[in-house]
Amino acid sequence: MWAAPALSAFRTTSATRSCRCKTPSPPSTRYSRCRVTPLAGRGWCLDTTRTATLAQGYRLHRATLLDLRALHRLETLIFPRDAYPYLDLALLFLLPGLFNLKITAPDGSLAGFVCCSRGLSRERGWIVTLGVDPAHQRRGLGAYLLAICENRLKRPFMRLTVREGNLPAIRLYERTGYRVIEHRWGYYRDGETGLVMEKRINPEDRDRYG
Question: What is residue 174's three-state secondary structure?
C-alpha cells in the first residue's frame, strides 16, 4: 500500500475510535527558559506564543518507532478499509523526508497523529496520514497538526488525498484553506474516489506557526 516517493497512496481522515499509548517521557529541562511546546526528538522547539493553541492539557510530541504498535492500532481502528500494514507504517519512520507527530491527551492517551512528507518537489509537501480520536475532536487538534506540518515543511503548496465520502475531514481541510484540485476515480481499494486537495501557503500564514 505504501507508494512513496510517488505519494500516490496518501490519505487522511478523522479517527473513528480511540487508542492508547504510553505517556512519553517529560521534555528536557533545557526548554524551560523559553515559552515552547517541547517535542521529543532533536530540532523541535516551537514558540507557542505564535502558534495555533492546543487545548489545555494536550501535548505535542514527535512520534518515534517506539510508538509504532500504538499507532498501528490507531490506524487499524480508524482506517478499517485501508489502514497501512504494520511494515508499511514502519516505513513512515525510516524513509527520509518524513516527519511524524502525535498529540497526547491529559490522561496520556493518544489523541491524534500526523505524518507529513517533503515529497519530490520543492514546491509541494504532502500530508501522508492524519487522524484524531473522536473523543478529542472539536478541540482544534486536526487543524493544529496541519499547521505544524505546513510550518515544518515550508513548501509553497501542501497537498493531501481524502476519501470523497469523508465529509467531516473534507470540511476541516476546506476550513483550513485546502481546495479540491483533482478527482482520482477508483483510487481506494473498494473503488471509492479519492480527492486530491491543495493549499497555497502564504508566508504570513506560515510565519504564524513559528
Answer: helix
pLDDT at 129: 94
What pLDDT score was predicted for residue 80?
Answer: 81
Span 103-113, mean pLDDT?
92
Please report the pLDDT score of residue 51 as a whole number.
Answer: 47
Distance, in Å, from the CA atom of 182 to the CA atom of 196, rounded to the nearest integer, reads 5
Quick one: how far is CA 14 from the chain centroid?
A: 10
- Residue labelled with grid coordinates 497537498: 159
Q: From the CB of residue 31, how many other CB atoms can be counted at a distance below 10 Å?
A: 14
Q: What is the pTM assigned to this prediction?
A: 0.72
Cα separation of 126 and 119, whole Å? 6
* Assigned C-alpha cell, 73: 492500532
Residue 136 DSSP label = G
Q: List domains and CATH numbers for the chain.
A: 29-207 (3.40.630.30)
Q: What are phi and psi of 74, to 5 degrees?
A: -65, -45
Neighbours of 62 (CB within 10 A): 17
